[in-house]
Amino acid sequence: MSAFAGPWPEKGSLVLRRARIPRLFLERALGADDGACLLADIFIEDGRVARLLPAGQAPDEAGLAVVDCAGRQVWPTLVDMHTHLDRAHSLSLAPNPDGTFAGARAAMARLRGLFTPEDTAARMDFALRAAHARGVSAIRTHVDSRAEIAEANWALFADMRARWAGRVELQGVALLPVETYATPEGEELAERVADLGGCLGGVAEFPVEGSPDELARLRKALAALMRLARRHDLDVDLHVDETADPRARALELVAKAAIEAGHVGRVVCGHCSSLALQEEAVVKSVLELARRAGLRFVTLPTANLMLQERLPGRTPRWRGVTLLHEIEAAGLPIAIAGDNCRDAFYPYGDGDILDTFRHAVPALHLYPEEDASLAMIGPVPASICGFAGHGLIGEARAADLILFQASTVNEVLSRPDLARKVVRAGIALTEPPPAYPLPGEA
Ligand SMILES: [Zn+2]
């Protein structure tokens, strides 16, 4: 039976013959090194990978169905570690006519005023169905936690997490200005997030035009955030320096706060756009601090390309992405993620991390056939977030796989409408991405 023709075996027990797996998606090295990919046979029993062997080294198991991949690419299901599911597909509710960052923030304030759990749940569900159908099996989402909607939005998130368990594993991160953590409201929110098993987070915005008092307020807020994270044993995931202003240096304040609080190795910094515009000496010292703080990074290329240095009538002169290669060279983990999807920050997208990755390749000068960048949408974010069981193929793991109608990584990336078959626990998904329009839209 071929992988793309005919019915898929109904039970989650089969042998996938001649699957070509990029090595960075293998949990353990397998066989002699013969390039960036390994041709393997995957023995799947009861939805799990029972054995993984170089192709042709084991006979067929009696009674197991055989599916021949014929040397086509087989990847694990992937991880999108920075999303905003509660805003996804909200563009028609809260548009952003000038497309700017300020316009997006104003739109989000309007969206908050329109909040109902029913509408938000319908949009989240649409986004999750689209991601699931493309082979995303774990998502971290930021949860708008401004006082007026925090309680209802977290209750909704917990409900969606339970409804989607077993299909898409969800993590939630509190999203609000970090200054709130220095107030009783912040303490209360941290307790709620801890009870619900989420992470603390928010926006750390450096006061580039501000007074020493405002800078002191940011330092105090970050110290309060780290203290609360320590108290409740929570990971932290922040939006940091999402700006083209090189004076924005919140990243080093975050690193210092993590070191001072002893919350080392527990903090993710997203965006870090202004780092790319700072002097070499500054970058060097900031990355050294980041190393001491054990910071992890995530770059969000689509939102950065769309929003950074956006001015009417002006063509952008820079890409807005952070120093991915320098961060990697400093030995710090960095992932690639989707961020906004059809909302006022980024008006396109469909929750497909592979689509995000295709944008990342030219934006960040990646060379996925040769470098380790594919890991940045699989094993790296799985490790950063603690999404065990996602982003790697290995024995005893769930047989959660993506089969592509392509033999090489180059072919996968070159043809956006390439057929892919998503397999969960050994069984092929049959439900396509949800059809437009969304519920409630014309
Ligand atoms: Zn974001």
Report what the structure shows.
The structure is a single chain. The protein is an alpha/beta fold and 442 residues long. The protein folds into 2 domains: 14-75 and 393-428, Urease, subunit C, domain 1; 78-385, Alpha-Beta Barrel (TIM Barrel), CATH 3.20.20.140. Helices cover 32% and strands 20% of the residues. It is built from 12 helices and 16 strands. The protein has helices at 101-113, 117-134, 150-164, 184-195, 212-232, 250-261, 280-293, 301-307, 324-329, 353-364, 379-385, 409-414, and strands at 14-22, 37-45, 48-54, 65-68, 74-76, 78-83, 136-144, 169-175, 200-204, 236-240, 267-271, 296-299, 334-336, 401-404, 420-424, 427-428. The strands form 4 sheets. It has a 5-stranded parallel sheet, with helices on both faces. Strands 3-2-1-4 form a 4-stranded mixed sheet, with no helix packed on it. The chain has a 4-stranded antiparallel sheet with strand order 5-14-15-16, with no helix packed on it. The longest helix is centred in the middle third of the chain and has 21 residues, at 212-232. The two termini are 42 Å apart. The model has no long low-confidence stretch (mean pLDDT 96). The site of zinc ion has 6 residues, from loops.
Please provide the ordered H/E string of secondary-structure elements.
EEEEEEHHEHEHEHEHEHEHHEHHEHEE
Individual helix count: 12
Q: What's the number of domains?
A: 2
Give the CA-based shape. globular
Question: Can you name the CATH architecture of the largest domain?
Answer: Alpha-Beta Barrel
